[in-house]
Every structure is written in C-alpha cells, then in structure tokens.
Amino acid sequence: MLIVRDRMTLAGLRTLAEETFGTLVKAVVDVERRIMAVGGELHSDEEALLLEDGSRQQDVWGINLYPEFNDERWIEFDSVINIRPSQNNRSRGVDDPGTRRAIAAIVGELVMR
User: Fold this and answer.
1) Structural domain boundaries of the chain?
2) What are the tens digits of pLDDT across the range 65-75?
3) How remote is the C-alpha of 12 from its chain's centroid?
4) Is the distance from CB of 38 to CB of 4 less than 8 angstroms?
C-alpha cells in the first residue's frame, strides 16, 4: 500500500492491479488534501493509512480503478467506507456529483494516462 502525493504511471497502476485483484486497484481519495492511497486489499486499510497520515474522515472516499479502461468506466465509485448518513451519502457510491467530479479530477492529476 502506498500514498500517492505526486504522479504515478498507468503502468504502475496496472502492476498493482496484477498483484492484487487482476483487473482493478482499490483506492481511497482525500478530496481536501488531493492525495490517494492505493494497493490495499480493503478500502478500509487505505482509509486507515490516510487517517494516520493526517486526513479527515469526511474527506476520504473509496473507489476502484480499472487501468485497462480508457473511458469513464475506469473509475468506479463503490465502497462500503462511502456509506455515511451523516454526510447524506447513504449508498456505497458517491452520491454528490460535485464530490464525484472532484475525485475524478484528483485521480486524473495523480495518474499519468
């Protein structure tokens, strides 16, 4: 597991996918600090890593990345850590369109495609 603060290559992401789930990489994005954790077996492991690093719970969101896709399917907004009724997010997805756009923008900045 690692925290991505600068850019990583798509090839690096593919390698992580191959080492874990084959076609996907679990990731947790901090929308405030504009960083993400990748390579964990569970989103909760990556979430814990970011929280230990100074992130705030309300700022971190779980996603899955599919490095083989070249369209909007490459980011999947699905994680149990996203269920937060206190933030009006009652699903495993990311219900707020603005938050989804922010996550996609951060991932786009951090992964060289």
Assistant:
1) 2-112
2) 999 999 999 99
3) 15
4) yes
